Fold:
Amino acid sequence: MTPAVSHLYTTDAYIRFQNYSNLITLVNIRKNSYVNVRQL
Structure:
């Protein structure tokens, strides 16, 4: 595997990981705001 191709793969994996963690963060924010609304 050439360095360019492996770099492409690692970049793709990194972007996917970032998207995944962003999604988890959004879900947690939604969950927290839902809990806060129920406490009011």
